Task: structure prediction
Amino acid sequence: MRRHALFIGVFIFIAAARFAILLASQAHVHSDEAIIGLMGKHILEGRYFPFYMYGQPYNAGAAWESYLAAIAFAFFGVSVISLKSCIVALSLLCLFLFYRMGCALYDVRTAGLATVAFALSPSLLKWHFQVRGYSWYFLSIPILIMLFASIDSDRAPKQRMLFFFGLASAVGIWCLELAIPLVGALWLLLILRRRLSLSNAAAGLVGLVMGYGPVTAFNFTHQFSNWRYLIIERPGGGFSSLFHLSALGRIFLDEMPKFFGPDTVLWYYPETPASGYVFYVIALFAVGVAIWPFAKSPSKIIRALRGDLSDHPQKRDFDVLVLTAASFVPYLTQPVGVPSYFFGGCFLLSVLTGRILERSFSSSTALLRLAGAGVLAAILVTGVLVTIRVGQENQIETLSSCNDGRSYCMTRIPGADIEGVEQYLRQHNVMSVWTTISFVYPLLFESGETLAISNAIFEDPLRVYPQKIPWREPRLDPDAAFIIETDAPFLSLLEARCTQAFGGAPLIRHYGKLTVIGGPSQQPRMDTSGH
Result:
């Protein structure tokens, strides 16, 4: 217990903080979370058992989150808190596995310091509450690396370990295909280090085939939709953009400082938070320190690839650098940066941060110890302040129409605005709702599917329900309500159209960033008794 005291203290603090944030500021869901919540509700009701997330042939982790949510719903009822509590619990399991991964790669002290950096990383802060299928991907990273470290440390790896490594590799890819480059890098390192003989390689292959068997069966029974998406249909610009200096400047000078901040829910916001610069500088410093011995002596790279490097910590530094680069591959394939495509790198950069902290504190040089204390203080102060701020923000972050309706941009919708809209719908007994694409499924989930909702008036209708789940279309009559963003460019036009269609002035209510337009029948009536 004394050896792990630092981790135990961090774990207790983080667990208390995350559940406090859950109860204080996670009262609503955005579209992806709502869809997974609805999947969990349908599982609980026995209406459908999904293999992937509704509407997409990939990201099985979203389906797994919905099965976990169904269990929570059975005990605590269908609600936002029940849904998100599952992700918080998985995030704490991930924190434990991350610490064990650090111990497997280095030592207890390095693992404890790395856990501090990982637990307070702003990049992942909001994702400890995000229901998007990533939680199982996060769990797969430390599991795969721990298995890799065990196999790599053994000159004659056991078949059983190779089997589990193959099984974990396949399941990791199944849960979220972003794991493919990381898995490929781990297998390549084992091959180059001659850890795979013919017999134990066969055991690993058996694990791969067994773990990926359900995906293979799905593809053969669903017109190869998963493989077609990954190979042909997946959006992305490949690596061609890397040949343009402007793209490299955009990535490393504009996007990366934002990536290390807390606003990484889907796309980037225009502004760059100060916390992003702090953690970006620390990450660059950690990578630079790890690279320096290999840049100074390139022959070490060959020895590290072969596994012949006598300095064990430097060998692990090399492994972590290779895996960081592999985790960056999906990010580089996108013409516009998608933060979640580099989340795997947060695990590895946190490990390198723990490594420089441990080396600093173990140094006999006072200046290095002071530098390490400064880095740790920056992590603690910045991370805690960001955590407090996020805990105070009861809001959702979603897409909203921008550029005069020609595209979508990230926007923040306060929880009070959503609650005002939902209260309006209840008070006026509104059952038919027309809204924009970002609010169809959140309103559907938070209303318990009592509303009939569509976005067909504003854009192409979004229908992700399987055919077995009936879809209720709203009625376009005076009892319906329209919910749109207050700053939508077509708000005034919609008000005029409603007046013409209803034959009377509609009821308009503004709730901050959201506006409700109801029919004349929803106007408050005068009390004929004189009261």
